[in-house]
Each structure stands twice: as structure tokens, then as C-alpha cells.
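Page 47, continued from p. 46.
Same chain as before, 283 aa.
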Amino acid sequence: MLNNRKIIDTHAHIYPQKIAAAAVKAVEEFYSNIKDDYNVPFKSKTGELAELLHLAEEANVVRIVVSSVATNKSQVASINNFLAASAKSEHRLIPFATLSPDMSGDELKAELARIKTLNMKGIKLHPDFQRFELDGEQAFRIFEEFDGSLPVLVHTGDKRFSFSGPQQMVKAALSFKHLTFICAHLGGWSEWDDLDGYLKTQNTFFDTCSTFMFLNHETILTIIRALGVERFMFGTDYPMWNYKMEFKNIANLGLTDEELDKILFKNADNFFGSSDASVHLKV
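Result:
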């Protein structure tokens, strides 16, 4: 179906073995009422690196952005250490670090400096898990510490909360034009009717994960083409979804062969750089 294309997964999560089961369960519980709304059976995997790499090998996935989210500042260092060590042992991984909104300015500065020494390639923030408004004081205090050298992957949009709506993301992107944002879930998980503001932003990109189960294919295709195919990158949100399911869905969207190539590989390859040994931004 996908003719053995090379794939880059720009949105996956991994956890240390001793906490993986609990972390996956917490994610399932967080989204439990959404599952009921859409009648979708989430079939989470283990959340461990070994399984992700096995699945990636089977699916011809050549590089994977991995992250995890700290729900308090005491978790930040250990999560970043784990992700950095995982990437050091496995060249296919592109590690995105976590930060916490309850960190002080000095703590943010120190951890950002350490993240660079760990050779991490971006920052992942999840306003809904971490309980801060994307266009609020806490978020802006974090963004003010960023120099623009690392992209910021942000969970965007959840109809149950008021933390990460698309227009909040747009406000942040316009306020920090020197930063590059990857807006997860087509830019508005469960709030996809409010995406037009992204047309005003030049520093926002998008991933496709956790959308196919909740939107019809025609709507997804319309969103992608309206915002620009070059801004979209494939993602799975592992361990929430599997490659087989996500490949089937994206292949059935009605994209042209060229558009499919861009979303599955070329856009991310250009964004991160094509060297397996040294990932670097090219935006």
C-alpha cells in the first residue's frame, strides 16, 4: 500500500520499563471519556523502547521523535536523562526534552543548558497534562527562555479544557516568532474547527497523530491542503496507535503520491536534517 516508503515518525512516547505500564494506563485514563464519546477502543502497547523499535523495523520507520511529559519539576531531570540515554544507544531516535511550568527562571535556564549538552533535539510541552494555559503567563515565561535553536512540540486542542486551544497556540506563535512550533494532532486535537488562525503563522508545523479515529478523511484532507502540505509530518502518538492502522488511514486520505511522500518522510527529513548521526534543524 505504501510501497516500502521510508517513514519518519515525529510523535511517539517511551517510558522506562519500571514505570511504563503505569504511564500507559495514565494516558488511557486521561482520554477515557473521549474514548466513550467516539466509541474507539484504545489498544495501547507497552510504551517501552524495545517494542517501539521492533514495530518501527517492521514498518520501515527510519527515525522517531520520542518524548515524555513531566507532571512536576521533580521528574524533569530523570525523564530527560532517560530520553537522552535512549537516543545515545539508538541512532534512529530524535529525543525531545521535557520542562515543567513550575520551574523557576533559573531552573529553566539551567535545564535548557543541560538539554543541549545532552544533545537533545527539541522540547515537548503538554498544556493539558501539565495544567498551564498556552497563551498564559506560565507558558510565556517558559518561551522567553528559549533562543530558537530547538523546536517546540506542543499538544494543541482539547475540548474538555481551556489550556491548549488552536487560537491560544496561534497567540503564542505570533508572540514568539523566533521559535518554531510543531502543533500536534493537526493543530487542534478535538478542536479542529478553529484552525484558520494558523494561516497567519509562519513558524508553525503540524503532525498527523491521534486524528484519524476522530475526523473523517475528507475533513483531514481539507485541513492539510488549506494549511499547506509542506507543514505536515506523520506521527503515531505511540503507544496509543500502531503503524499498521495509521498507515492504512493516511494512505486512504486521497493524497497524491507526492503529498504522501512529503508527509511520511520528506517534510520531517528536511525539518530535522537527513543525517542519522547528527540531527539538526533546517527550518
